Every structure is written in structure tokens, then in C-alpha cells.
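Handoff note, outgoing to incoming analyst
You'll be picking up this chain. Sequence as last confirmed:
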Amino acid sequence: MHALLKKAAVALPAAALMVALAPTAASAEEPLGVRCAGGNAQMSAKPGLTIVGSKQQTWTGEGVTTGCKNVGSGKAVTSAIVFFEGNGKGACVPEFGIPNADLNGRITWNGGGPDVENKVSNVSGTSKLTWTGANFTGVVTDGPFKGKKVNATASWDFDLIAAAGGCFLGGYTNAVGTWDSLNIG
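Most recent structure output, in case you need it:
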């Protein structure tokens, strides 16, 4: 009997620790992740990229991404409304864009059941803005998919004449294009 009590005294705390450390399952309604492709994107930078050295830029980007597919089970996420804002130094020359920008954003989900529908995922990370598009890498800090990695890319419809004019005449400030991908999880 004494040996049985000794085994129980060791096994119970170990079992409690295993339960406490076990990963919690996502809600049955929330998919493991989402992959989206397509939709529109735009970006605005202030004061604007110029040929006169690298300047601190504050920029915003937004758009709607479509063609979403779930990773794992759960109710289908169909699209997302995305808003990003960030800051970093950028110029038109020698490298066009903002090569290393801090970024924060919000993703509002369409579809996905009650745990995701119309809910906001807050994201934080870094981005690189170039004449061809934008790349973002970060993590979901709050909301659906909290703790999951985020990767997003957009391609700009680059107009060389408008860009050159902006760079020489006070600052290239706006770009429009498409979402190539938004991946979470």
C-alpha cells in the first residue's frame, strides 16, 4: 500500500503538469490559419520619397484581399479588409522605397464563423517597400489567430513617369496594386 501511495504522489503532480502545459486547441470554429490571394492594395507615404537623401516616412496601406482558403477545418474565411501603418527611412535613390519599416496593422475577417467573422486580428512586424511592391513579416498580437505568423505581399502597378515626377517634384507618395498573398498560420 505504501508503494502505491508513493507512485500516486509522483504521478498526480506529473499528470497535472502535463495538463497545464498541453497546448490548448483552437476553437472548433476558428481555422488553424488562412491563405488569401488577390484583391486590391494601396499605399501612401508622407512626406514622400525624393531624390534628396533618405527621409523618415510615415506610411499607410490598405486594401481588400479575396480568394481566402482555410488551413485546417472551421467555417470558411472568404476575404479580409486590411489596414497597415508604419514608419521607416526611404528615398527614390539609391534604392527606391523604404527598405526596413516597422509596421502595425489590423485585419478584419469576412466569414469564418462566430470566432472570426467581423473580428479584428492586430498584427505587428516589419516590411520592405520597393518600386515593385511590399513584403511584410510579423505576428498576430491580438484577436483571431493570436500568436500565428503573418506574411503578406503586394505588387504595385508601377508608373515610371509618375514615380519620376514625384521623386523630382516634392515626393512620390502613392502606389496602387494588388494583394499577391496574405498568409497566417
